[in-house]
Amino acid sequence: MVEIKDLLDKVHLSDALSFLRSMPTESVNSVITSPPYFGQRDYGSDKQIGLEIHPDDYIKALVEVFREARRVLKKDGTFWLNIGDNYVGATSQHREGGSQGKTSRYSRKHMNGIPTDGRGDRNRTFYAMGLPMKSLVGMPWRVAFALQSDGWILRCDIIWHRPSTAESVKDRPTHAHEYIFMFSKNQRYYYDRKHMLTPTGANIQSVWKVAGSPFTGAHFAVFPTELIEPIVLASSPEDGVVLDPFAGSGTVGVVCRQHQRHYVLCDVNPDIVQLAQTRVIQGITANDKKRLTEKRIVALPVPAEKPEIKKIVPEPLPFPF
Ligand SMILES: C[S@@+](CC[C@H](N)C(=O)[O-])C[C@H]1O[C@@H](n2cnc3c(N)ncnc32)[C@H](O)[C@@H]1O
Q: Where do the domains of the chain lie?
């Protein structure tokens, strides 16, 4: 098994489960991640999670990955899971009958965009479960309950309120939130509360309104740096290690570099790994660059092998980015 120091401050190309299995026990301070949502995107890999036909298989795959993450987490570590819901029959998150990203240049080139296969089968599975067309699936809670059953302590369900959400639906309220579940491995855990206070010194509440500045260079759900910043700070000390096994564009790495935390990132798609490497080291958006220069990033050296830089052309994204 490799040593944790060999894995630090890199974006690794692997499926999450194999990568976690190769990691040393009790070696990271926190896990902060956003896995693919069920049936929403084809990330172009046989080993991807999210395109299972039955929701139970999706949940099982996530439980297996996060069981391994629990082994890798230090005894006083925490795990923060961002996950959103969707409706039976919807081709994009929230939006029934919508489409998202399938025709974008990035999506066509680097991933397969909206999955075209399996949608009918997935819907039939939902009907068999008693969920007709237009039902809200409740997937975040299904996953959270499964993780509880597997041994995680669920400490908080944070509502990420996304105020800029727009939907064309007229027969229900606009769905404008996702969840961030906070789990711990044990009853006592590292939690630097000063990063979870309001400007008046009160304890932060469980509804977080973050419009953020989403990175628009990739056609998959990206969490804003502002959303995860307090989590990175409260869940790891300086020089601590934060793991994101579904790294996407590497948002966790950008925030870690700014705050002198080490990051360990992993993603199954080679083009996305390259995108994340470039973004974490150089920044791609003005917001990334500001973050990375603000602290002059002296604590963590740029890895010796510089990634080949591809020009990433940001495009305006269809909802919900
Ligand atoms: C929702 S995105 C993560 C976005 C990320 N939070 C960000 O801010 O950019 C999910 C990522 O998981 C990756 N992925 C899918 N299946 C995977 C697997 N089995 N192992 C590792 N990564 C996987 C996809 O390639 C995608 O980049």
A: 4-294
The rounded distance, in Å, linking the Cα atoms of 73 and 25 is: 7
Pocket of ligand 1 (CB under 6 A): 15-16, 34-36, 43, 47-49, 220-223, 245-246, 248-249, 251, 266-269, 272
Instruction: Please choose from 267, 277, 284, 288 the residue to mutate so as to test ligand 1's pocket, defined by most ligand atoms within 8 A of CB.
Output: 267
Q: How many Å lie between the centroid of ligand 1 and the Cα of residue 247?
A: 5
Q: What DSSP string describes 31-69? A: EEE-PPPTTS-B-S-TT-SS--SSHHHHHHHHHHHHHHH
Mutate to test the pocket of ligand 1, among 23, 43, 107 (most ligand atoms within 8 A of CB): 43
The third-level CATH classification (topology) of the domain covering 4-294 is Rossmann fold (3.40.50)
**Residue 231, phi then psi, degrees to nearest 5:** -70, -45
Per-residue pLDDT of the chain (321 residues), as tens digits, is 799 999 999 999 999 999 999 999 999 999 999 999 999 889 999 999 999 999 999 999 999 999 999 999 999 999 999 999 999 987 654 444 333 344 444 444 555 556 666 788 999 999 999 999 999 999 999 999 999 999 999 999 999 999 887 888 999 999 999 999 999 999 999 999 999 999 999 999 999 999 865 566 666 778 999 999 999 999 999 999 999 999 999 999 999 999 999 999 999 999 999 999 999 998 888 888 888 888 665 444 545 454 444 444 433 333 332
Q: Using the mean position of ligand 1's atoms as its centre, give its distance from the Cα of residue 279 in Å.
A: 15
